Structure formats: structure tokens, C-alpha cells
């Protein structure tokens, strides 16, 4: 013997039945916040970079990074993707954090766009890329901009020039880095 709810469910049109079974699909919640890419630098330090500055993420074998002589220690060398050649930098070393990249068969790389050059011979349409070699990419997250605040706890002074704020999610602090500041800091070194 069928119950009243089973009969009602069977008598519904397919669209109405789907709406009953999947109400969130038919009543979507508004998307709030900007997207950021989360990166785990250490077991205690998670950072986020605005996804609007991220061109792509890659797994690159160390053999595909061409080292160059007389470069800053954080500059790993040249790498390429999609017909573009760009510098690869060890983000932890750039931030002067005491973290060594573990020897690996592949490196995780976040390719960011940097601002076009400011000299007269540079075209306004030129886009430069920078590959940030990181220990672990965690994925994306949406953060409402009003939740990003000035750091409330002491932050390593080496991070200060690159920091645009912090956010606390489920009791964990995520430092938000400025991709623009990272790109600008590397222009004199890499031009």
C-alpha cells in the first residue's frame, strides 16, 4: 500500500519532482565574495592569492626549469607554458620564510599575471607572467571582501610588503597576499 506522499510524488510532473528532490538547484543562493587560490606554505601557514591575477596552475618537472647564472637565490630560472616564457621563483624563499622545497619529481606552480612595464618602449598590451613555485596548492575559496581585515596577530615582517590582509575561517587564519605586490617586487630583478 502506497502512502500519500509516495502517490503525490509519483503524480508530479518530472520537473516538479526534480524541484522537490533538489530544491537548491531551483533556488540557488547568491554567490558572495571574490575567488582566491589557497596555497599551503607550511603546516601552519596558508595563504591566498586573488584568482583574478592567476593565469593557470601547473605541475612542472625540475628538468623543464632552465636555471640562469647570477640571479637572486629565490629565482629558480625560466619556464614556459602556452607559448609564454617566464621566470619561476620559489615563493617561500621570496618571502624569506625558512622553508625548503622538498626534492620532487614535479613542482606545483601558480602562474600570475604581473603589471605591464612602465617604460616607454613597453606596450600597454604587454602582459608579463611570473611562476610562483609553491609546496602545495589547496584549491580555490570564495571570500567576501569585507571579511578580509588587517592582520590581528603578529606577522613575519618579511611578509608585510606582500600582505593585503587576513581572514579567519573555522578558527584558521589565512593570509591574503597581493599578487600585484609580488609582481612589482620582481620587476627590477627579472627585467
Question: What does this 3D model show about the protein?
Answer:
There is one protein chain. The chain is of the alpha+beta class and 191 residues long. The chain is 19% helix and 36% strand.
Salient structural properties:
five-stranded mixed β-sheet, CheW-lke_dom, 10 strands, globular, 191 residues, OB fold (Dihydrolipoamide Acetyltransferase, E2P), Chemotaxis protein CheW, CheW-like_dom_sf, alpha+beta
Broad CATH class: Mainly Beta
Total beta strand runs: 10
Structural Rg = 23 Å
CATH superfamily: CheA-289, Domain 4
Largest sheet: 5 strands, mixed
Helix amount: 10-25%
Estimate the global geometry from the Cα principal axes. globular
Poorly predicted regions are: 1-7
Instruction: Note the total helix count.
Output: 5
Number of domains in the coordinates? Answer: 1
Named CATH topology: OB fold (Dihydrolipoamide Acetyltransferase, E2P)
Arithmetic mean pLDDT = 82
State the CATH architecture: Beta Barrel
Query: In whole angstroms, how far apart are the ends?
Result: 78 Å
